[in-house]
Amino acid sequence: MTIRRATEKDVARIAELYDEARRSLRAAGVDQWQDGYPDADAVLKDIDSGRAYVVTDEGRVIATAAVYVGHEPTYDVISQGRWGADVEEYGIIHRIAVDPAARGMGVASGIMDYCAAMASGAGRTWARCDTHRDNLTMRHTLEKNGYICRGVIYLKDGAERVAYDREINKDNMEGKL
Predict the structure, then answer these.
(1) pTM over 0.70
(2) How many domains does the chain have?
(3) Looking at residue 169, what is its pLDDT?
(4) d(Cα 138, Cα 97) in Å, to the nearest integer?
(5) CATH code of residue 150
(6) Do residues 128 and 145 make contact, with C-beta atoms less than 8 angstroms apart?
């Protein structure tokens, strides 16, 4: 498996992955992404900003995520807890979607490691992510990868998300990027 930046040629496949994720979330009773977001416009914005990545296996796109180092305004205010550290920039992961046929292969964990390595390479020592409270699969994956639930943040539209962060151990990032 390899991780690379997504291109416009990947948009249709990424949209398929998000559609599959929506179906899985709906089947699990999670109302996350049921409004049609993320859509092709969101994917194109991620590509244009250099944040869109795909995971390929034997040339086939099996997962996608927005991964970057920076500052996420919706993380400025956290309630019912606090971040592990007060830092201005950190690694950020949004919109992970994995092909159902590739689940259980460690793909989401690989994306999380990639983000941590990217952040470490930029001199940052933390990574952050958020997810829907009822998205137990993502919450388990985050916790399995060393992320700690820190509290609640609110998206621009007012939707609540549980917020996670992870301290990056530079020694463990050697060779990950």
Answers:
(1) yes
(2) 1
(3) 79
(4) 10
(5) 3.40.630.30
(6) no
